[in-house]
Design goal:
alpha/beta, Ribosomal Protein L25, Chain P, Alpha/beta knot, seven-stranded parallel β-sheet, five-stranded mixed β-sheet, binds S-adenosyl-L-homocysteine
Amino acid sequence: MLDRFYCPEPPVDGRARLEGDEARHLIKVRRVVPGESVELFDGRGSAFRAEVVELGRDRVELAVVASLPTSRGPACSLTLATAVPKGDRFDWLVEKATELGVARLVPLVAERSVVDPRAAKLDRLRRAIVEASKQCRRDVLMELDRPTRWASLVGSSRESVRLVAHPGARGIAASGLRLGGASAILAIGPEGGFTEDEVNRAVEAGWVAVGLGRTILRVETAGLAGCSTLLALAEADSGSSETKGA
Ligand code: SAH
């Protein structure tokens, strides 16, 4: 399996160019030589096999050899709207959500929130999303939104399935949700939890409160446990096209 590199610029006349971090990685870490093949992906769903043509100081020119078939995305377009855990636990959450196939992550600001990531941190996390996508061979990058207030997200979300995780609510797998082909959003509160008022307002606006098990999970555990359950339910709902196609 060939190593992947992120090339957001579309190839021109069959030529692609890597610059900056990606080029330096190819030159200094991978020590590629002209003629070697790698894979390029643009983070929007297209991927190519390409051959190194020329190496500059921090620039690599490549010739596109073939378009690669795009991999099947998850069975449901899932947004994780989550309060931000402290320190590197948020970095970890962003990396793992990327691997799982979450389509979009919204950092949530709720009444009891204590962390509100700055723009510089979000830029660094976007770089981490690229790295995780390369490693897990994901073709479309996870979107990372700017921090959003829970109160405004409650009213503005348009996903067909809107869930707010709240300890004590009915279990997510027992909620009878139909997820195959749907768009869904799962909200996770801060360490202090959502206030009752925050949950009630969401339920009044059509959100469904769901439980994630009998123990109280940390923010990042709750997000990942909820997302992997929802993606598995969506996969089961979609009738497992893999077996049909086999
Ligand atoms: N003391 C808080 C716990 C917050 S845990 C309280 O009792 O509400 C942080 C967030 O993770 C919660 O707001 C919720 O969204 C989610 N969460 C953690 N454990 C959960 C569980 N067992 N069921 C549903 N949501 C859970």
